[in-house]
Specification:
By secondary structure, the chain is mainly α. Helices cover 66% and strands 8% of the residues. This is Prefoldin subunit 2.
Length: 151
């Protein structure tokens, strides 16, 4: 009895990749495809940047976690170097690292959604990107009807 509801939930979860608003014309398809690829690429870059920042936070945490809590510690806040103690700085750096993890997780989800949408458009409209090879091309050599959009 609960199965149809579960199936409808699963179908609805898959719907973002299939998107309800498919572009109408070939030009719109290409523009949408290229925009999504560019946005996914930007998300990849931002995620890498934040991963590096998170790794720097982890290095700082490892460096100061075993120090005397009353020891002087300097922290750069908004371009200003301020003097604090280890016990004040350590929790703040840990909180920032955890915040970076949350942001990275959200951006990764957004990136995955865009990549799924790009793959969906690529399969549906048989979009081929110049300079990229596709495994199915090698299997279907010589077959007719391989027309699609070239981006």
């Amino acid at each position: 009895r609960d199965r149809p509801e579960i199936m409808s939930e699963i179908t609805e979860e898959k719907a973002p990749a299939a998107k309800q608003d498919d572009p109408a014309s070939e030009k719109e398809v290409i523009n949408t495809f290229q925009t999504l690829r560019q946005e996914a690429s930007q998300l990849f870059s931002k995620i890498n940047e934040l991963e590096n920042e998170k790794a720097e936070h982890a290095l700082v945490i490892d460096a100061i976690k075993d120090l005397d809590p009353k020891r002087k510690c300097f922290r750069l806040i908004g371009g200003v170097l301020v003097e604090r103690t280890v016990e004040e700085v350590l929790p703040a750096v840990q909180k920032n690292r955890d915040g970076l993890s949350a942001v990275i997780e959200k951006l990764t989800q957004q990136r995955d959604d865009k990549v799924d949408r790009v793959e969906y458009l690529q399969k549906k409209y048989k979009i081929r990107v110049r300079g990229e090879e596709y495994p199915e091309d090698e299997e279907n050599d010589g077959e007719a009807g391989k027309q699609g959009v070239l981006a």
